[in-house]
C-alpha cells in the first residue's frame, strides 16, 4: 500500500461513469490522488490519463489491482464484471467504490458481501441519490420522527422513450442482468428503503414486460445502438415489496412506456403523522393542521455542480480514513440485489417470492 498521506486511487473503466468519478475525485486533490487507470479499450484509458494527468495506464485489470501503490479502486464497468473485479480487489487489500448495481444478481452480490466481511475492507456502492439535498432533508425529518411510522412508500421512474444503447451490453441480460429494473430501478429501491429507515424486506411480487425493445421502439438518445446486437431484457417493471414490520413499497420503472410522464424519478413516503414527496428537483413535506392539508416546500439547495457526487466521494474517503461502514454498504447492496432477483423470479413464475436471508459464511 502507498505511504502517501493522500489516498491513492485506481480507476477501472474509462467510459461515461468512470469519467464522472474522475471528474469528481479530481476536485478532491487535498485528500486523494488518482494514480492509475485501465480500460478494456486502452486508447480510452490513455485519453483519460492525459485529460486528468494520471501517471499510470495499466494494460489490464490484474496489473492495476495488484499495483502496491494503490489504496482503493473505483469500478465502473458493465454489471457482469462487478463481482469478479470487486472480489479480486478486496483480496488484494484494496477498498472498493463500486457502481450500481452491486452485482448482476443476488448470488454474485453475496460473494462480494462475504469477501468484504472476510477482508475487512470498505465496499461502498455508488448510489448518489441518497446524497441529493432533497433526500438528505427528508431523511432528517424521518429520523426526527416528524413523519411518524412510515407504512408505505411509492417510488418509480417512468422514461417514456429512453432505451439506452439498444443492442449493447445494456440490453443483453447475460451482461447487464436486466433492463430498467436493475439499471434505474435500483436507485429508487435503494433510496426508498433508506428513507423508510431500512426495514427488512421479506417478500416480493412483481412483473416485467418487454413491449418496446423487441420491436426496436422506445429508443432513447443515450448510447449508440448496435443493431446487430440483441434485446432480451424488460422495458418496464412493477413490484410490491413487503417488509418485516408490515410496511410496504411499490416500485414502477420503465425505459419506454406510452404514458403521460415528465421522466423524473419520484419517491412518496406515507407516514402516520406526515408524508414526504420527492419528484425530480421538487420536494415537499405534507401534513395536516387545524383540519387543513399543509404542504411545506423543500429547498433543493446544493453545492455548485455535482453536489451529491461530491458528498458521496467524500463519504468514501471518510469511511476509509475512519474505518467505518458507508451508508451504502455491501449489505445494502446485497439487499437491493436480493430484491431485484426476487422481482425477476416472481415475474417468471407468477408467484410471490419469499426472500431468503441465509447469507452464510458467518
TrEMBL record:
It comes from the Bacteria. Residues 136-275 form the GFO/IDH/MocA-like oxidoreductase domain. SUPFAM superfamilies: Glyceraldehyde-3-phosphate dehydrogenase-like, C-terminal domain, NAD(P)-binding Rossmann-fold domains. This is Dehydrogenase. Pfam families: GFO_IDH_MocA, GFO_IDH_MocA_C3. InterPro entries: Gfo/Idh/MocA-like_OxRdtase_N (IPR000683), Gfo/Idh/MocA_Oxidoreductases (IPR051450), GFO_IDH_MocA-like_dom (IPR055170), NAD(P)-bd_dom_sf (IPR036291). Residues 8-127 form the Gfo/Idh/MocA-like oxidoreductase N-terminal domain.
